[in-house]
Amino acid sequence: MSGTQSNQIDEIVSLLQNQSPNFSHVADLVYHANKSLGHSYIEIRERLNDLKYPQRLLASRNFIEVIKALDSPQMFIESEK
Predict the structure, then answer these.
(1) Rounded CA gap, 41 and 66, in Å?
(2) Which of 28, 57, 62, 79 sits a CA distance of 20 to 30 A from 72?
């Protein structure tokens, strides 16, 4: 993984630890972090496993919401303007 991709994953994991992250924003970051969503998911999962409880639980729950957002066609037609 390149340094830029690693920084993007670091940012994503940091945002996932917030109480109320903007799921659409994090989903955009996940989508653009790598050319493969599967690869991004694996990298994020590995980073989440390094977190201590309760941050790991919070971040994992938030990551599930991000995955749901990515699975929704709404994500690609929503606009924050």
Answers:
(1) 11
(2) 57
Q: Which positions ≥6 away from 11 have C-beta within 8 Å?
A: 29
Residue 35 has, within 13 A of its CA and on its CB side, a CA count of: 2
Over residues 1-14, the pLDDT tens digits come to 666 778 999 999 99
Write the single-letter amino acid at 41.
Y
Contact 80, 24 (CB under 8 A): yes
Please calculate the CA angle 9-47-39 and round it to the nearest 5 degrees.
60
| Per-residue pLDDT tens over the stretch 30-73 | 988 877 888 999 999 999 999 999 999 999 999 999 999 888 77
